[in-house]
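hi! just following up on the protien thing from before. the input was this:
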Amino acid sequence: GGSKLALLFTLACLLAPPLFYLYRYRSAIKKRLKEIEKNAYLVKVVRNKNASMEKNRVICMELDPSFVEDNPEFPMMSLGEYFSQLEPAEKSGFNHLFLRKELDIVIGGFLLKTLGKTYGA
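and the predicted 3d structure came back as:
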């Protein structure tokens, strides 16, 4: 009787913190999903081919330079180079933190739409 109750109490005390953490983590994921879904289609960015890529360089899925040089008949660029050329369609109030957040929302929306809501969870 009493030992089973003590065991159950101990088990509940040990499992409560991880379960609470998982609950908070899952709630944060759901909140972020709603934000991405709400804002994904409001973002408008354009590609500026003349933009200085060194200033706004994004490192993402880089291509091996020798592979690009060995295949000159196919114009190629890495995903990072492409992202480095994106900027807001409307210049008013432009700042790089805003652009980074908006690109995060666009990429997140694409991943959710393509891979499903359980991606990364």
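Residues 48 and 85 are 5 Å apart (CA to CA).
The chain is about 60% helix and 5% strand.
cheers
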